[in-house]
Amino acid sequence: MSKKIGFIGLGIMGKPMAKNLLKAGYSLRVYDINMEAVKEVAAAGAEQGESAKDVAEKSEIIITMLPNSPHVKQVVLGENGVLEGAKPGTILVDMSSIAPLVSQEIAAKVAQKGVIMLDAPVSGGEPKAIDGTLSIMVGGPEDAFEQVKDILLVMGASAVRVGDVGSGNTTKLANQIIVALNIAAMSEAMVLATKAGVDPEKVYQAIRGGLAGSTVLDAKVPLVLQRNFNPGFRIELHIKDLMNALDTAHEVGVPLPLTSQIMEIMQALKVDGKAKDDHGGVIQFYEKLAQVEVKKNN
Ligand code: NAD
To answer: 284 alpha carbon to ligand 1 midpoint, in Å?
Structure first.
């Protein structure tokens, strides 16, 4: 019989990930402070949990998919949290993107009760969460990773163990720097092409197969051309990741000159009321500077 899984955090990402586990035949007990999300996943076959503690009491593997470090600390270590309910030997897989040092801190605390933690953040966004084709980067003990690998591969196309606990989130920070700077490069280039009088859709088609082609280009340019900035991945969440990247980098003695620039661009968009736009909406910063809009020519 497959192990009983608890799933906490049913947002843009967690909801489709939980549904994919149900589709694959796993039995799930779920919890979120948003009751609507809980009801929706329960309608797909999950049991409704009453709290993080309740989910932990009735599960052997617990997955969390929450916004940031404070939420994971609260849900795992706080009152009525995972640690109050978890039995020794439980594996906690935190799939949220949080600060690597916080992953290590939480792992050390739960270890005192015999709970093993993996940090396993993901890349790929909502479409890949729905398709079950996320890229999953995992930190923590090898044997715990081997025990949950099949479960991770229901949600992801790949699950790679990169090292000890915390290293999954360090890898995710590297990922987020590359994605943010790719979006900035795409934005500068498309604004230039448009204002110089060339159809941005044709520019995209002409360059996507060459060295400038990228997953970011293919994911974001079609949405920009339709002026669709619905998230996806919200600018405010990317700010959170870049904040974690800058903090971590400064702590280990690494300057991040380009990351600090894209961070300030995202801060300007936040002031401009666009924090909840998809991060592809970064192009709006460049459009304002150049007084031009990148869109489909009818
Ligand atoms: P989200 O805000 O849509 O979902 C977070 C969920 O956590 C919400 O349903 C919220 O109600 C719940 N929650 C918050 N506090 C809680 C608590 N105390 N107890 C129980 N539930 C609580 O965020 P998301 O887009 O699903 O992202 C989740 C994580 O995945 C983040 O760390 C994000 O950076 C990362 N991520 C997101 C994407 C993306 O494209 N959205 C891609 C890769 C990684």
So the answer is: 24
Give yes or no for a contact between 59 and 30, defined as CB atoms under 8 angstroms apart: no
Determine the Cα–Cα distance for residues 103 and 168; give it in Å rounded to an integer: 9
189 and 90 together in one domain: no
Say what the pLDDT of residue 204 is.
Answer: 98
**Residues 78 and 12 both lie in one domain:** yes
156 and 10, same domain (yes or no): yes
Specify the pLDDT at position 3: 87
Atom 40 of ligand 1: nearest residue by CA position: 125
* Catalytic position from the list 172, 220, 240, 274: 172
**Close Cβ partners of 197 (under 8 Å, ≥ 6 residues apart):** none
CATH code (residue 196): 1.10.1040.10
DSSP string, 55-87: HHHT-SEEEE--SSHHHHHHHHHSTT-HHHHPP
In the predicted model, residues of the chain with pLDDT beneath 70 are 1
79 and 213 co-located in one domain: no
13 & 160 share domain = yes
The reported pLDDT for the residue numbered 1 is 56
Token pair of 235, please? 């600018």
pLDDT in tens, 219-274: 999 999 999 999 999 999 999 999 999 999 999 999 999 999 999 999 999 999 99
- Ligand 1 surroundings by CB, under 6 angstroms: 8-14, 31-34, 37, 65-68, 71, 74-75, 96-97, 122-123, 125-126, 232-233, 237
How many domains, the chain? 2
Segments forming the whole domain that contains residue 199: 170-290
Task: Tell whether 159 and 264 lie within a shared domain.
Answer: no
